[in-house]
Specification:
The protein is mainly alpha-helical. The chain contains eight helices and three strands, in the order ααβααβααβαα.
C-alpha cells in the first residue's frame, strides 16, 4: 500500500488506531484518491460526467488549524485543474465527517473555538479555490456526526449524550452560517 498521508491526524485516523475492530481491522487508506485522481477523473469524463463532487480534507489544507499547507494547496489545485481540463465542473465539499484530531481534542462541534477554526478553513478554501470552483457545500449530511457520534455510538466522538448532540448540531449550524458569511 502506498503512503497516502502527508497531513495531520483526523478523527478517522485516530479512531482506527484506538479501535481497529470497528473497521474490521482493515487498512485506513482504502480509496487512495490522492494518487488515483487523474485516472478517476478520466473515468468520470468517459462516463460523460459534467460535474464531480469531492471534499477538501481540513487536515490536509490547514494541518494545525492556523498554517496553510502548500502541499495541500498544490494537491487540490491539481485536482480542480484536472477536472476543469476534462470539462468537469468541480463541486467542493468542506466537511465530510473528517474532523481534525486537534479540533476533536478541543471538543469538536461542542467547541466554539472549533466553529471559528472551521470558518477560517472555509474562508481559506474560498480564497484559494473560489476562482475555479463555482459550487461549495459546507457539510455532507450534517446530522450524521450528531446521530452517530452523540446518539448511537457509530461515529466519532462516540459520546452517547443527547444534550451534547444538540449542542454539536447547533454549533455545526453556526459554523455553516459563519462559512457562508465569509
Amino acid at each position: 500500500m502506498r503512503k497516502c498521508l502527508f497531513w495531520t491526524t483526523n478523527n478517522w485516523d485516530y479512531w482506527f488506531k484506538i479501535e481497529k475492530y470497528r473497521f474490521f481491522n482493515q487498512q485506513p487508506c482504502l480509496n487512495d484518491f490522492y494518487h488515483s485522481y487523474p485516472e478517476d477523473i478520466k473515468i468520470a469524463k468517459e462516463l460523460n460526467f459534467n460535474s464531480l463532487r469531492t471534499s477538501i480534507q481540513w487536515t490536509r489544507l490547514i494541518p494545525d488549524g492556523k498554517t496553510i499547507n502548500p502541499k495541500g494547496v498544490a494537491f487540490y489545485n491539481n485536482v480542480i485543474n484536472e477536472m476543469l481540463k476534462n470539462n468537469i465542473k468541480p463541486i467542493i465539499n468542506l466537511f465530510h465527517f473528517d474532523m481534525p484530531h486537534w479540533a476533536q481534542e478541543k471538543g469538536g462541534w461542542l467547541s466554539r473555538e472549533v466553529v471559528d477554526a472551521f470558518a477560517f478553513y472555509a474562508k481559506t478554501c474560498f480564497e484559494l479555490f473560489g476562482d475555479c470552483v463555482e459550487m461549495f457545500a459546507t457539510f455532507n449530511e450534517p446530522i450524521v456526526v450528531v446521530e452517530g457520534g452523540y446518539w448511537y455510538d457509530w461515529h466519532r466522538p462516540n459520546e452517547v449524550y443527547m444534550q451534547a448532540g444538540m449542542q454539536a448540531q447547533w454549533n455545526s449550524l453556526i459554523a455553516h452560517f459563519k462559512a457562508v458569511k465569509e
